[in-house]
Amino acid sequence: MTKDIFDCIRQSHSIRNFRSEQIPDATLTRILEAGNMAPSAGNLQPWYFYVVQDVSVKEKIAAAAFDQEQINEAPTVIVITADPARSNELYGERGAQLYCIQDTAAAAQNILLAAEGLGVAACWVGAFNETKVEEAIKAPPRLRAVAIICLGYSNEQPKEYKERLRLAEVAKFIH
Predict the structure, then answer these.
(1) Which residues of the chain have pLDDT under 70?
(2) 8 A C-beta contact, residue 45 and residue 83
(3) Quick check: is 60 in a domain?
(4) Contact, 24 vs 53, CB < 8 A?
């Protein structure tokens, strides 16, 4: 059973302490499918997901991410890469520099929401050395590491909902 999407949005938050138990393959597949269903410019789907469970590869990724320990703790780490050349084919430089990044960010958000809906904890890691992460996963030169998503089951106490800015502070209606 999955949660309502609005509950997922409200309740999701970054988890950095994970239990050691692995996510079942069927659950992990559903999470990846959600990422793959993300919208993309021209439906080009310029992403590729590296699903990392190997301890030595996770250690290299953690080192490339300035020793963020949640990468080592999480049973599964997904490195989301973008293929700028794929977006460039249809949209030129703007596609290569912007659209493929937007598209992979949408895929990352879908992964986070699907994980939350399926009771899997997650943490989006954005601070890392791209080149070192790409080397760790042996990505071909055309791919660019955009995000790291740590997945597993939480080993933290439930948190209160996070404070958010009021809608009036972040939105302007133009009629």
Answers:
(1) 1
(2) no
(3) yes
(4) no
